[in-house]
Amino acid sequence: MVELNSSSPDRDDLVAAIGEAVMRWQDATQAYDDAVGESLQLNAAERRCLSFLYGGAQPAGAIAGATGLTPAAVTALIDRLEARGLLRRTRSAKDRRKVMVETTGAMEEIAARYYRPIGDAGARFLQGFTSEELATILRFLQGATELQQKYRALTTTDERPAT
Predict the structure, then answer these.
(1) Which of 66, 84, 86, 130 would give a disulfide with 107, using CB separation of 3.0 to 4.6 Å?
(2) Are β-strands 87-91 and 58-59 bridged in parallel, bridged antiparallel, or unpaired?
């Protein structure tokens, strides 16, 4: 837990403490995901793919964008996960020429085993906050996610936004 230096911290101390807490949270999340992946013998790209598909079926090209893999590497990744029974290919209902990739019931069971308990505990933890605090947390998380996405996109260019 991050401790502040005084009983009445100034704004700069709070901003620094939040920054440190976010870094520790990111590290803890990554460590948990790594441990789950190791337990299930899934590499980082496979975990990113499965996480991306949590929101629903996607075409292989979208998986390539989400994982940063080439189309050939995504095909191999899908083949591996399909052979393990975690993914399946289906035809798009809108365009039968388009192949969609989706998770299977086996993947949903794995997600429930590893992520439902931590999700439930997180929901219980959030019950201790007021509605106004929850709205602030949500605003922070949405803004922080936008910042991460913006800076991730810039890592492939020489551009760096002004700080």
Answers:
(1) 86
(2) unpaired
The DSSP code sequence of 142-158 is HHHHHHHHHHHHHTTSS
Higher-confidence residue: 145 or 2?
Answer: 145
**94 vs 79: CA distance, rounded Å:** 24
Task: Identify whether 60 is part of a domain.
Answer: yes
- The span from the first CA to the last CA of the chain, in angstroms, equals 28
With beta carbons less than 8 A apart as the criterion, state whether 106 and 86 touch.
yes
Q: What is the pLDDT of residues 104-130, one digit of tens each?
A: 999 999 999 999 999 999 999 999 999
Q: Which of 77, 7, 2, 6 is nearest to 42 (CA)?
A: 77
- Residue 3 counted as domain residue: no
Count of C-beta atoms within a 10 Å radius of residue 52 = 17
Q: pLDDT digits over 70-88, tens only?
A: 999 999 999 999 999 999 9
